[in-house]
Design goal:
Subunit structure: Forms a membrane-associated complex with FtsE.
Largest sheet: 4 strands, antiparallel
Number of strands: 4
Keywords: Cell cycle, Cell division, Cell membrane, Membrane, Transmembrane, Transmembrane helix
Membrane topology: Multi-pass membrane protein
Strand content: 5-15%
Helix content: 55-70%
Strand order of the largest sheet: 2-3-1-4
Distance between the termini: 25 Å
Subcellular location: Cell membrane
Shape: elongated
Number of domains: 2
InterPro entries: ABC3_permease_C, FtsX, FtsX_actino, FtsX_ECD
Length: 304
Amino acid sequence: MRFQFILDEIVIGLRRNLAMAISVVLVTVVSLFLVGLGFLAQRQVDTMKDYWYDRVQVTIFLCGDVSIAASCADGKATDAQKEQIEANLKSPQLQGYVKEVFFESKEQAFEHFKEQSKDSALSENVTASQMPESYRIDLKNPEQYKVVADYFKNTQGVESVQSQNQVLDRLFALLNQLKLGSWLLAVITLLCSVLLVATTIRLTAFTRRRETGIMRLVGASNFFIQLPFILESMIAAAVGATLASVALVAVTKFQIQGRLAKQLTFTNYVDVGDALTVVPWLFIIGLGIAGVSAFLALQRYLKV
């Protein structure tokens, strides 16, 4: 009996305030979709880090015949200097950082250069003798590249030390800024959602103040009076969370995996599985905000 009464009250409330309910749904869709994008952005940054940090290397370029660095004042790197560099790479100070070392000769460097520049006219004007010898170092923890890079700076026989991490750090800094921007926008829209839910509930309570007054007089508890209003807002939030989840999964499948991943193949991307792990959070956040907002708004406006 009570359940049927509450259900009837919910239907009446949604019918009377259909426009406001639709507004709550739409704002909830936008805000939760942005929240979902924030979660996916975080996951994308982690995915790219896992992909790229496993592939980056620190490269020690040795002095050549025409090197002008101060550490190359004695000319081309000697065999003794190479042996010293190799000994340093195996030393206890670097043992915890270096995973594997590869020596790249001039000929090997030239082959790699031709491979990478096969469509460029520049490859026709470069010879193997112009390419630098180098040591390419795989790291146990790629994020600690500075330790190895700094160790060989200004070392005799070493022209320069380069790491792809330097480029990746700037890339991930940009991605983190974009991620924070999406989170900020999501927080703003969630705040709008909270205000809209509270306003909707207040208007609904005002238009039904006669019914709630009668319920109070016949001894209905505060919770029983408040429950239909809270459930109305939570139903609207649940519809919004459902639409936001569908939109998030669709964007992930058709835009990220269907288009972006096929056009830009230089890294891995989030997939539908990642989007589905975000969906429960959208419902938790949406229902939580709607329920709490409605409850707080009713504390004042149901007093008779």
